[in-house]
Design a protein that fits this description.
By secondary structure, the chain is α/β, with parallel strands linked by helices. The chain is built from seven helices and 20 strands. It has one domain.
Length: 442
């Protein structure tokens, strides 16, 4: 156990191209807003600590700072700066880029919970300097939705739901994030403003957009907390934070004052071939509902059977889930979560470093340089609030001391918990049908 602790606590540094890959394929996220605070993304440690049980309370301190006794988040000291955690795994033929955006609270009435961690996986063929996106898979509550990025990707154990929608000019993938429950959709999920718990569909053929009020989060804008404006879509940046140097170093911390409530032994289909992690943090600690964990705790989905299999073994999972053009290697040369750190190298697969990136998805060199040294989310707690017109916030002063790590003890009343007709509460039982897939229009 001690050896596993060392192996999985201190992961080797990511390959040199990993940060540029993460930036190149990072999505534009359309976050629909119901509550101008609770629907905003943040980082797990936005409040200056890694205690999972106080995140929702400290989030609410932004609006109720006068009720706070602890100094860290009082007087709006903990702005909600969006953070997307990323990691890269690699085979000779593909990169698998995981993105995990984070909300402090899922505030559904029927089964809401502290922490909300849907996820996005990009399957990128190694056929150029930063590759070609072949498929995207997003987490929609209890379902996985997969989208085709290039021709030749077909149904496998799971279906292809449609095409990856891209932004004109940048070529970035587009993803829609629901209000309240925050399920992710590669199309558009019609908001149910009367009873948001019953937002059960994703229209896969529709391009992601803001229906009424929302924030468009972009990876190439300066991160800052957006000022939400009713009936408008404002823009904000998000921090691309490497998972291996942020959350993962805390993966064995369980119990009071830590991020995690219990432990997971990963038991994937191919653990006889790899060193699979054991005793790692599973569900996040929280005191509002049953908190989930991050991508390594999510249901397996079609084609595989182990909790977290899509995160730990994406090559096997996606090979089972979908059909891909050959070649498609199942042998990792970089997957530190399974103990593989040999590295692929320029000659290990069909990577031509001289090939330029498609002009439709070029990466600005200055932005890529910044991605190589990701912004420390804790340094952004003093950052300015983005103006309503979507302008960029000034950079955080990396040399300044962050606020003290004390937690905020306030707990504001949940304004969304009252006044719901009893008949709608009965209808909420229909959530067992979960996220029915709307048939794409032709």
């Amino acid at each position: 156990m001690h050896q596993l602790f060392v192996a999985f606590l201190a992961l080797p540094a990511q390959p040199p191209e990993a940060a540029a890959l993460a930036l190149q394929h990072a999505p534009v996220i359309f976050q629909e807003i119901h509550d101008p605070l609770k629907d905003l993304y943040s980082g797990f440690d936005f409040d200056g600590n890694w205690d999972g049980v106080d995140n929702a309370d400290n989030m609410e301190c932004w609006a109720n700072s006068g009720d706070c006794s602890a100094p860290a988040c009082a007087n709006q000291g903990c702005p909600l700066v969006a953070t997307v955690y990323w990691s890269v795994q690699q085979t000779p033929t593909h990169w698998f880029i995981q993105y995990q955006p984070y909300h402090p609270l899922d505030f559904k009435l029927t089964n809401g919970h502290e922490h909300d961690t849907e996820s996005i996986l990009m399957v990128v063929r190694r056929d150029g300097a930063l590759g070609t996106l072949e498929a995207m898979e997003v987490r929609f509550h209890l379902e996985w939705f997969a989208y085709r990025g290039t021709a030749g990707v077909t149904d496998g154990a799971g279906p292809v739901r449609g095409e990856v929608k891209r932004e004109a000019g940048t070529g970035r993938p587009l993803v829609y994030s629901q209000m309240v429950g925050h399920g992710l959709c590669g199309g558009f999920s019609p908001p149910n403003r009367l009873f948001p718990d019953l937002q059960l569909t994703c229209n896969h053929a529709e391009t992601p957009h803001i229906d009424k009020t929302g924030v468009i989060y972009r990876p190439d804008r300066n991160p800052g907390m957006p000022a939400v404006v009713t009936d408008q879509a404002v823009e904000a940046g998000y921090v691309l934070a490497p998972l291996d140097t942020t959350i993962w170093p805390h993966i064995h911390e369980l119990g009071v004052g830590t991020p995690f409530a219990d432990a997971l032994d990963y038991a994937g289909s191919r653990c006889n071939q790899f060193t699979c992690p054991t005793g790692i943090g599973r569900k996040y600690r929280g005191d509002r509902g049953s908190s989930p964990g991050a991508a390594w705790t999510q249901d397996p989905g079609a084609g595989v059977s182990a909790e977290g299999e899509q995160f730990f073994d994406p090559a096997w999972t996606m090979f089972r889930r979908l059909g891909f053009p050959a070649p498609f290697s199942l042998e990792y040369c970089w997957n530190p979560y399974l103990g593989v750190t040999s590295g692929c190298g320029a000659d290990a697969g069909p990577v031509d470093a001289a090939v330029t990136v498609d002009a439709a998805v070029t990466t600005d060199a200055s932005v890529a340089a910044d991605a190589a040294s990701p912004v420390d989310a804790s340094a952004l707690r003093d950052g300015a609030v983005l103006p309503a017109d979507g302008g960029t916030a000034p950079p955080a002063d990396a040399g300044s001391d962050p606020p003290p790590a004390e937690t905020c003890s306030c707990r504001a009343a949940d304004s969304d918990s009252g006044g719901i007709p009893s008949v709608l509460l009965l209808l909420a039982g229909a959530r067992v049908v979960r996220a029915r897939r709307a048939t794409p229009s032709s």
